[in-house]
Amino acid sequence: xxxxxxxxxxxxxxxxxxxxxxxxxxxxxxxxxxxxxxxxxxxxxxxxxxxxxxxxxxxxxxxxxxxxxxxxxxxxxxxxxxxxxxxxxxxxxxxxxxxxxxxxxxxxxxxxxxxxxxxxxxxxxxxxxxxxxxxxxxxxxxxxxxxxxxxxxxxxxxxxxxxxxxxxxxxxxxxxxxxxxxxxxxxxxxxxxxxxxxxxxxxxxxxxxxxxxxxxxxxxxxxxxxxxxxxxxxxxxxxxxxxxxxxxxxxxxxxxxxxxxxxxxxxxxxxxxxxxxxxxxxxxxxxxxxxxxxxxxxxxxxxxxxxxxxxxxxxxxxxxxxxxxxxxxxxxxxxxxxxxxxxxxxxxxxxxxxxxxxxxxxxxxxxxxxxxxxxxxxxxxxxxxxxxxxxxxxxxxxxxxxxxxxxxxxxxxxxxxxxxxxxxxxxxxxxxxxxxxxxxxxxxxxxxxxxxxxxxxxxxxxxxxxxxxxxxxxxxxxxxxxxxxxxxxxxxxxxxxxxxxxxxxxxxxxxxxxxxxxxxxxxxxxxxxxxxxxxxxxxxxxxxxxxxxxxxxxxxxxxxxxxxxxxxxxxxxxxxxxxxxxxxxxxxxxxxxxxxxxxxxxxxxxxxxxxxxxxxxxxxxxxxxxxxxxxxxxxxxxxxxxxxxxxxxxxxxxxxxxxxxxxxxxxxxxxxxxxxxxxxxxxxxxxxxxxxxxxxxxxxxxxxxxxxxxxxxxxxxxxxxxxxxxxxxxxxxxxxxxxxxxxxxxxxxxxxxxxxxxxxxxxxxxxxxxxxxxxxxxxxxxxxxxxxxxxxxxxxxxxxxxxxxxxxx
Length: 809
Ligand SMILES: Nc1nc2c(ncn2[C@@H]2O[C@H](COP(=O)(O)OP(=O)(O)OP(=O)(O)O)[C@@H](O)[C@H]2O)c(=O)[nH]1
What we know:
By secondary structure, the chain is an alpha+beta fold.
């Protein structure tokens, strides 16, 4: 809806009045509708009464106090406005950002330039560069060899930005401190993106100027939405043949559905790409010198003036749709000033209503500096993002954390890494200060921990510091904890929500080639599990084999390789196995008696009830997919026929049964069990008997309830040159894939399809053969669906045969 229509419909909101200077920026930056990190709720505006009370007591401790008693009482705006001015000045120049994008978009290449232009590295080294050094942020040997990012890497740098004084207009230099995390693009390492976005305040979403929005861009977009992360978009690779930034801008608007507009236009394109025109100030920016380090400004080239004006109008129109001040200017038929446009971009970006688009070519050393300026101009400082913890001392009531160093410390351990000096724990400090030698509490375990060493990370190098203030990111040594643990000072009792961890979809059996390597093998497995929550290990109860599970073939193969390199352990692995699931389709009653009363202490337990598909499994989502819900156990006993402690054992029996389904031994999904009657024996009943009786009843009822094997379907996106479209579609048809979208560009086409994971083993080599090595594909878990009947029969027969063989032994 355009601004005029909005005004007519009465949907325009009133915004806070703006005045000049710093204060104006502070007031208007954070809108009252800023999203809350926890539960994705929005916080209501404070009541007039509370606002008055607040104004009367404006110290940070009282902000905290008010937030503790009534977390909805204060807007983030009120908190920002009342921060101590010195603290605000420090925070205002801090940016915690991540770089996330589709595979090979140039995240690491762009980060290398950021480090060079900010003086963090002396020279630029390329990903897969001829000098063999590799980019700073790809510090692992494997990353440098493969030219891909496997682990996210953190670094920090200072960027000196020229800002016009809001009052005098004179140019002054401001130093911004940027904590930056470069994340991997491959979906197999998606947990690295999840945990980075969980703790960052803003992100740079990179897009390829030729391909625009790609499959992983959509995944990254989903992750940014999950954690309410504001973003700017950088269209990279403007030097490539076929570069077209407008395709990327359209893709963001139409595919990601975020209002987006370019704030620059390119000067030239492909190998003629020379710089950009800043549409806000209508100035040309050129990055010159041998490595683009000399930024020169000039007038907008005459031949681009009309086009720049047209795109500037489009920028203002797009902003008018998401920002009331610009909408008002639009209604008054007044052209907003450059400062008004900048303020509006900042407000709406932080309010998650808009993303400004900048462009350049990292590899050609073009226009990375203006991207850094945009990070400072449009991404939030740590005090502007609302972060909540749950207060365990107040019935898990949400409590707002305040980015203020004088308050008690609250931090989140978001990533663990083994280093030569022991376990390194990355911590985001949300509130208070973290000091060397300080004792903090682990909110999960209740353990006291002393912080022996604090460092700031610069990829694999580190710099020791004595303390870290609120809103910053650091790493600490010698702290035993799990990924996602909250640390607090004293007995605050706060804990923060952790990140989303996707379920593994693929597994394989693994064992060391030589028995002498078993201790090292166990060490490696323990470490990898601690560091990566998507890498799981269990011992198959029936075969006794160790099974590793993860997000894809690449994910598991990287761990196998790391065992060899870092732990000198050669391993034998089985064929990759799909993580099937088992479920039921109908409701079945059961009445099961476990009775062994032949002399001595006996076993007696009777359970009566029913099993059925869970309520969540029944409805279908709009695309027609069945969403299989979590398993559910319930007791509806009246009259005490089964004692409470035995019911607890029944629940345990149910949960254990769900771990190894009766058909294949894979996990059960979407199954509910209700026990509503039973019987107990005075002497022979026990928890053990009830647990076993439940497990036996489960097995019988499951088999009777039309059980089904579910297989993971993967959203697969393939891009290849147009001449191979027939071959690729043929490959997909052979795999009974369901094609959901096809897009044909000038040179390349992209097909999106749901394919069964089982049918995708070995796909990469077949795609290579079918496209002369020019095709690329990505695969991401989509949902579970019933496996074809023939496959179900084969899998069940195989599982039965294996069981029979094991029983013979
Ligand atoms: N033509 C061109 N190539 C680029 C540009 N930026 C990066 N590349 C190339 O694209 C490839 C991938 O670059 P990376 O920086 O590793 O991309 P990435 O997004 O970090 O990759 P992953 O983390 O593995 O997903 C490398 O060969 C780069 O040299 C650019 O601006 N122009």
